[in-house]
Each structure stands twice: as structure tokens, then as C-alpha cells.
């Protein structure tokens, strides 16, 4: 197969689907993991409506099928692929790692592929599946989230009601926004299986919109999002990236609300703190109900841990739950991480006596991280790094690609990303760059640190000025 035979349309489709899928992942680690799994793919070919994805051995083909088949199908759909497209995972021990895609052969009309395509109902169901354990029953109420909880319940009991429409939930990362939003979706779907409940992230909406534009599929895109009864859009701060897409969202928003369809959104900050969002959108968002989720207090943290530990075998002793609630305060996701560490350790060694000393040892990293999660700001990092390299903060923020500026710029991005809990969006805003530029910078430094001791020493020196060690890095 020569490169002249590469079908660019199919290659584009695959690349778009991959981008869409990666955009649904939450952390850089998940993205890096998926990218490394995708790099096992040695060839892609399209024939008779079947996309064959080949790797060089059976193990990796089985692995990709099991882990990614459904997700890639959804992403290929969203990327504008044929709805009947089938994915086949196969292997070829002689294959090279180069990806090529032979020309698509037209699918004969009558020969509709016969395979496990899920039966589509006439109503459109969610773009992304809902997590089934994100329910109201599993959500622990406390003073930090009681208003948001009550509002979410209100929506689930009476969707489309004016005073709750839209419902806008904001708050820091890992505090339960996605959980609460999906609880609305789960409850409404349970009550009425014919209701079209759609959950997706704003980033996916943006990607799908761009694809629809490129593929001239605007009409079906509009039709789809206007046929929904309940639209749940997670992390709307990402809408700030696309001006044109904001117009489309505005129109969809108006269409749905005039028809009394429910809209729920989440964001890391309140609507008025979304600087790149159009004024008219902000005022629409504020026109419904805005609720904040705050970090939970001790009692709520303990109650959440009890709930999460309820069905664990072997069971987690009360003093361990109290220890975690006392020491891990920043967000619920970190608490879950601590709980699972304790659980693993008890499972491995059931006779172990769980003392505070023992817990301090096994949770050492998490506790230290918690302590270092204090007020280090991105400005402080930019200032410290520029001083170290003898450049100005303005030069760090500029777009000048001279190497003597690129290194301090990327190092400052790396420290902001790895040693503070700031979101990617916050970092991108403070560096006046796109979020892909930040990710690229972070990755570059990561690779260089593996081989450049001098850079590692500089990083260590900068960190020590903040009282940090290299190992204070967040996961
Ligand atoms: P966010 O969307 O705000 O970043 P998530 O909804 O993803 O946070 O929550 C992170 C994790 O913490 C999830 O596993 C979620 O179930 C859990 N969680 C957060 N708050 C609560 C709560 N009040 N009760 C039970 N679980 C919670
Ligand atoms: Mg979330």
C-alpha cells in the first residue's frame, strides 16, 4: 500500500474521532495513557463500512477492543462517521507501526452490515453515557452543597420549571458537580425512559460543532440538540474557547428554554467570572438558578467517606475514616484516593492493626500534597522563574519563540500544572495561551527532565524557594 492510496477523508475521520475521545478525558494522565494505547495501532483500513484497526499482536488488539470499542464508536459517530460504521480490531504480526488508510471502497447499498449495532430508539439519548452510581442516593448532603443538592432535586422533580431553568452549578474541582448533574439525568431517565436526556461536556459540544461546520452537517447537529428534553452541559468554562460556537449554544439554549426544556450546566467559576463568555450568555445563565458547591466540612467529609466505604470488603475501620476526613480536605476525589489506598492495604494485609502512625505512613504522599496545596499562585511562579532565567514576566507571556524564552516559559507552565491545583483553563488564562500550548509545554519539560540533569537542578532550586520538593508533584 503506497501513500498515494491513503484516503485522507478516512484518516481525517480517525484523527477527529481520536481528538473528540481525548477531549472527554479529565486528566493529563488519562490522555497520555490513551495516546500510548493508540500508538500500538499499526494500521487502519476501511472496507465495506468496516474500519479495521490493526496492531502487531493479539494481546493489544484484544485489549483495545475491550477498552475502547464502544468509546471509539461514539467518537467516530460524533466525528461525522457513518452511523452504521463497524469497528473491527485485528492484528498482524508483520505489520509496521506506520499508520496508513487505504482508499474507502463504496459500501454497496443493499449490503447493510449485519452486526451488533445497538438498536436505536427514535429518541436521542446521551452523547456520553451517565455514570450509573452518580445518583441522589449516593450523594451526601452537607452545608457545603445543600443548596445545589436541593436545586438539583427540584429540577429532577419538575424539569423545565422557570425558576430552575437553567440550573448553573459552580465550584472547585472534585466537589461533586458532575455527580449532581448526572444524578438529575439518571433520575429523570429512570422516571421516564422515553425522555431524551443528553449529557456532554462543553468541550465535546465545541468539537462536535466544529465537525458539523466542516462536514456541512449543521442541520443535523441543530436538529439533534434541539430535540432534547434535558440538556446537561458539564464544564461550560470551555465554551469560552469558541466565539462562533457560543452563538450556536445561545441559539440552542433559547430554542430549548422557550420550549420549556431543562438545561443544567456546571463550571469551575460563577457565570460572571467567565471573562471570555458573551455577555448575553452570562445574563441567560444568571437568569435561572445559580448555586455554588463549596469544600465540605469535617462532618460531611466523614459522612461521604462512610458512604463510599459502605460496601467495601474487608471493611474500613472507623478510625481510618476519621483520619482521612481530618487530613484530606481539599476535595472529595482526593479523599476517595486515600480511601482506596487504605482499602488496598487492608486487603493485602488483613491482620494489620490500623493505627494513626500506620495511616500516616501509607497516606504520606497524599497528606503532604494536601499541605502543599496552599496558596502558591501562577503569578508567583512566573516571577520566580523569570528571575532565575534573567528574563521579564512580559517575555515569558509573549509569543517569542527564542529558545532562551521558551525554556523558562514552559518550565513555568510545568510548575503551575504540576505543583498547584489550578485548572488548565486558569493556567491558560494566566499565560495568555491556548490550553493545547500549555499541555505541549508541560509535556516538553517532562521529557527534558528525564534526560537533562541541569534542568532538573534548576527546577529543584525554584521549587525550594517555595518550600517545595520535586516529590511534591501532584498526580
Ligand atoms: P467535579 O465535577 O466537581 O469535579 P465530581 O462530581 O467528579 O466533581 O466528584 C468527584 C468524586 O467525588 C466523584 O466520585 C463523586 O462521586 C464524589 N463526590 C463529590 N461530592 C460528593 C458527595 N457530596 N457525596 C458523595 N460523593 C461525592
Ligand atoms: Mg466535573
Please describe what this structure looks like.
This protein has four domains: 3-91, GMP Synthetase, Chain A, domain 3, CATH 3.30.300; 123-292, Rossmann fold (3-Layer(aba) Sandwich); 298-373, Helicase, Ruva Protein, domain 3 (Orthogonal Bundle), CATH 1.10.8; 378-472, Chromosomal Replication Initiator Protein Dnaa, Chain: A. 52% of the residues lie in helices and 9% in strands. It has helices at 8-23, 28-38, 58-78, 146-157, 177-191, 202-214, 218-226, 243-258, 279-286, 298-309, 318-327, 332-348, 356-362, 364-372, 378-389, 393-397, 403-419, 424-431, 435-451, 453-465; strands spanning 41-47, 50-55, 86-91, 167-171, 197-201, 230-234, 262-267, 289-293. Helix 4 (146-157) runs parallel beside helix 5 and helix 10 crosses helix 11 (318-327). The structure holds adenosine-5'-diphosphate and magnesium ion (MG). Magnesium ion binds next to helix 5.
Write the layout of secondary structure elements.
Blueprint: H1 8-23, H2 28-38, E1 41-47, E2 50-55, H3 58-78, E3 86-91, H4 146-157, E4 167-171, H5 177-191, E5 197-201, H6 202-214, H7 218-226, E6 230-234, H8 243-258, E7 262-267, H9 279-286, E8 289-293, H10 298-309, H11 318-327, H12 332-348, H13 356-362, H14 364-372, H15 378-389, H16 393-397, H17 403-419, H18 424-431, H19 435-451, H20 453-465
Parallel strand pairs: 2-3, 4-7, 4-8, 5-6, 6-7
Antiparallel strand pairs: 1-2
Helix pairs in contact: 1-3, 1-6, 4-5, 6-7, 10-11, 10-12, 11-12, 15-17, 17-19, 18-19
Adenosine-5'-diphosphate binds near residues 145, 173, 304, 307 and 333.
Amino acid at each position: 500500500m503506497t501513500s498515494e492510496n491513503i484516503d485522507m477523508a478516512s484518516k481525517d475521520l480517525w484523527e477527529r474521532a481520536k481528538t473528540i475521545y481525548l477531549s472527554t478525558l479529565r486528566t493529563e494522565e488519562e490522555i497520555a495513557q490513551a495516546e500510548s494505547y493508540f500508538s500500538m495501532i499499526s494500521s487502519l483500513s476501511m472496507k465495506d463500512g468496516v474500519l479495521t484497526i490493526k496492531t502487531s499482536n493479539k494481546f493489544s488488539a484484544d485489549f483495545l477492543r475491550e477498552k475502547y470499542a464502544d468509546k471509539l464508536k461514539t467518537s467516530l459517530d460524533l466525528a461525522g462517521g457513518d452511523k452504521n460504521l463497524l469497528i473491527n480490531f485485528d492484528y498482524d504480526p508483520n505489520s509496521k507501526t506506520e499508520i496508513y488508510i487505504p482508499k474507502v471502497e463504496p459500501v454497496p447499498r443493499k449490503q447493510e452490515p449485519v452486526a451488533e449495532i445497538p438498536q436505536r430508539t427514535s429518541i436521542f439519548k446521551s452523547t456520553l453515557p451517565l455514570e450509573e452510581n452518580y445518583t441522589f442516593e449516593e450523594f451526601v448532603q452537607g452545608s457545603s452543597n445543600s443548596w445545589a443538592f436541593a436545586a438539583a432535586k427540584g429540577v429532577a422533580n419538575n424539569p423545565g420549571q422557570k425558576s430552575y431553568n437553567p440550573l448553573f452549578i459552580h465550584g472547585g474541582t472534585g466537589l461533586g458537580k458532575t455527580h449532581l448533574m448526572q444524578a438529575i439525568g439518571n433520575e429523570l431517565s429512570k422516571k421516564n425512559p422515553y425522555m431524551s436526556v443528553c449529557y456532554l461536556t462543553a468541550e465535546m459540544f465545541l468539537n462536535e460543532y466544529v465537525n458539523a461546520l466542516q462536514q456541512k452537517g449543521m442541520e443535523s447537529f441543530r436538529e439533534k440538540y434541539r430535540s432534547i428534553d434535558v440538556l446537561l452541559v458539564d464544564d461550560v468554562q470551555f465554551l469560552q474557547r469558541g466565539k462562533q460556537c457560543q452563538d450556536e449554544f445561545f441559539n440552542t439554549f433559547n430554542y430549548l428554554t422557550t420550549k420549556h426544556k431543562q438545561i443544567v450546566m456546571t463550571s469551575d467559576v460563577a457565570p460572571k467570572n467567565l471573562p471570555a463568555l458573551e455577555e448575553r450568555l452570562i445574563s441567560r445563565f444568571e437568569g435561572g438558578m445559580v448555586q455554588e458547591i463549596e469544600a465540605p466540612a469535617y462532618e460531611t467529609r466523614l459522612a461521604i467517606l462512610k458512604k463510599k466505604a459502605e460496601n467495601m470488603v474487608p471493611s474500613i475501620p472507623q478510625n481510618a475514616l476519621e483520619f482521612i476526613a481530618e487530613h484530606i480536605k481539599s476535595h472529595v476525589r482526593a479523599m476517595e484516593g486515600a480511601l482506596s489506598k487504605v482499602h488496598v492495604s487492608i486487603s493485602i494485609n488483613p491482620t494489620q492493626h490500623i493505627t494513626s502512625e500506620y495511616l500516616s505512613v501509607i497516606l504520606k504522599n497524599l497528606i503532604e500534597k494536601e499541605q502543599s496545596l496552599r496558596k502558591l499562585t501562577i503569578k508567583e511562579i512566573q516571577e520566580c522563574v523569570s528571575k532565575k532565567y534573567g528574563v521579564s514576566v512580559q517575555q515569558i507571556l509573549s509569543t517569542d519563540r527564542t529558545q532562551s524564552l521558551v525554556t523558562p516559559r514552559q518550565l513555568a507552565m510545568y510548575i503551575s500544572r504540576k505543583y498547584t491545583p489550578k485548572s488548565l483553563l486558569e493556567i491558560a488564562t494566566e499565560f495568555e495561551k491556548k490550553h493545547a500550548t500549555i499541555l505541549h509545554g508541560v509535556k516538553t519539560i517532562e521529557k527534558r527532565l528525564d534526560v537533562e540533569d541541569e534542568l532538573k537542578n534548576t527546577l529543584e532550586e525554584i521549587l525550594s524557594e517555595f518550600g517545595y520538593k520535586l516529590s511534591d508533584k501532584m498526580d
